[in-house]
Amino acid sequence: MNWLFTIILLAVSLALFYQVVTLRALLRAMEAAIHKRRRILPQLSRKRLERLDAANFIDSINTLIDEHSEVANQKTTHLDQAEALLNAVHEAIIVFDSEKIIEFANSAAENLFRDGKTLKGQRIENSLRSMSLVEFIESSLAEESIEPCQIEIKKGEEALWMEVTLSQIRANKSEEMDSKLLILYDISRLKKLEVTRREFVANVSHELKTPLTIIKGFAEALIDKNTKIKSSDRDKFANKIFNNAERLHVLVEDLLTLSRLESLPESISLSKQPLASFFEEVAEGYRSRLDPEKQVIIVNVEQTIGELYFDRFRIQQVLDNIIENTYRYAPGFSKIELNAELKEDNSIVECSVVDDGPGIADGHLSQIFERFYRVDEGRSRERGGTGLGLSIVKHIVQQHGGTVFAKSKIGEGTSVYFCLPVLNK
Description:
single chain, alpha+beta, Beta-Lactamase, Helix Hairpins, 4 domains
């Protein structure tokens, strides 16, 4: 009888031991699956699992793992989409933690500060190229309110102006705000426009002040009853007033023209017309002003140039402004040439106005198309120049899709070129 009891006890012990071993193996499989975030795939059959009362438990865990994987995949997808979106933004964006370690930087930030190399994992103060920017971050972190700031950043030889903002990132209302979001908006172009605007206003004020002062002075002399003025002097005063009023009129007209060209770039009206006959027509308008014994105006248009798309009124303004400059600043010329030839596989027509006047020094050639620039300010004002003629030329040609430039040698004359694209409509 004892031996039967011993056999039964041994059998029960073996069964329990087997179940323990099986459960341990199952638990290890569950632990590995949870650690690797994958479904539990037990080697035991469904019936064996049910006998161990583990089937429903495993099903529940597999459901949780599936849900977690789905959420993780969605989170990864959202993060990838957010990163792609931030990398497409032109503004430089940097996220850093409470230890000032960069957690994220978009492509614009990496191009700005490390020439495209990654910024992630770098300390913020070691990565930025501007001490002013680092000081802004330090002061902003020390204060509760963070106001935007304009900061200059050097990138090689280029100086960039950035409007910088810093804000806190709150992932959850119950969590502390550890991460910071740094955004840099490039306002370099706005800064340049601001400088240009100030210079333009200053130049216009200066140009208006001189003729207005002259007009006011002579007008006061004429209306002063206590001052005896000779009749001949009165005529001189009246001429001075008229000439300076005319100068003001020309200046205002040039300013209005320049304003219209800059604010309404679509204002040109292109039409197809022959270039050679147009150049001849322009030249004919100046022949009456020439000394036929000493001066001549010649038109040279390449025969292969037929009809071209351009705004007749605007291109006549271009030619008039260039030719008038020759009359004004090189009155001793003996020849003016209006030339046109095809360039660059017949895709561009290069037009030029060439004179044999005194020429322009090399140091001035790159600046003569700027507003109010004068090679000789005294002579320019004396001869009624506004300093806007070649600037108007530049704007008109650019609206046609072309370019302008000049060549000159002292004592040999000046050539002003403007290139027009050959359009096929």
